Amino acid sequence: MKYYLIVGEASGDLHASRLMRSLRRLDGEADFRFFGGDLMSAVGGTRVKHYRELAYMGFVPVLLHLRTIFKNMAVCKHDIVEWQPDVVILVDYPGFNLDIAKFLHANTSIPVYYYISPKIWAWKEYRIKNIKRDVSEMFSILPFEVQFYEGKHHFPIHYVGNPTADEVTEFLASYTGTFDDFCRKNGLSADKPLIALLAGSRRQEIKDNLPAMLEAASRYAGKYQLVVAGAPSIPHEYYDKFISGHDVSVVYDQTYPMLAHSTAALVTSGTATLETALFGVPQVVCYETPIPKVIAFLRKHLIKVRYISLVNLIADREVVTELVADTFSVENITKELGKLQPGSPSRTAMLDGYTEVKRRLGKKNAPDNAAEIMVRLLKKKSAK
Fold this sequence. Notes:
Rossmann fold; 13 strands
């Protein structure tokens, strides 16, 4: 069968490439065409455009590149119609992908499968109307989305498992490195346990969060050594301006080994909070925002979710402390980190909460499970 996939960022490239491999195992004649990245190209098929040509974030960059964005949309729509795939698979990236879904619903009979739901439960919930109209099948990787879509909006979806849980499980099953090995490789002392600092993958996130994280964690430098997870796209020189004067190391391409050997962590929101939990590392979630009092008001009155970390969203309760907006401060980070020392009641309670998170995620392999459902549905459709 012919599969057309659209992703708009690096994480989508990773998830789509794994889905493509799973589809190919089930469908030996799978033919792929896509807007995607290098990982998808490595699986095979025809890349129409690289996602870097689509990925504009923030109001000003989008405004400056509107002509390019509309041109890419037009190219994509025309290419799909010309190629006539059996299915179009959209991967997250809602601003672009929901427009494609709307076009396909109005102008073709090609089914639209959405792999990795847009996070409309947090923001822009009005998009549910378009999703119900334009999307044939929704494939979710977060268990709480089932209640949101099916319970609240009466739109059946498929929870297929969580790719991050799959990746951590695969890593832990094969990783044999010891704490001494990790320390020796990175010039660290094997005599002190680690506090991991995961300050985000974008320059602005690092600028906003890392200084306070470092100041708070440095107060425990007598007992611990501090290690920053370097973002692949950020040069070491950028970190130098923040780590100067602190006894801290920056390691690249070793986030999972680092977490495997860490005693505690300070983490910005996002997938990293879930990864940290799956490694069983107690954490404090830290996220500085501009105009914190305004953001705090919006969180209480406009933003639809109670939590920002995936850990708490999945557990549907506070498992990890979230220091966001007006609660983000060096003093609060220091205090909460202090509660996570080995043997403390807070640490034990958090680890118990992680067990519940893992139970809710389940043990399904997300790309394999999604591919199996997709192929079954498509074969059923073609047999009619």
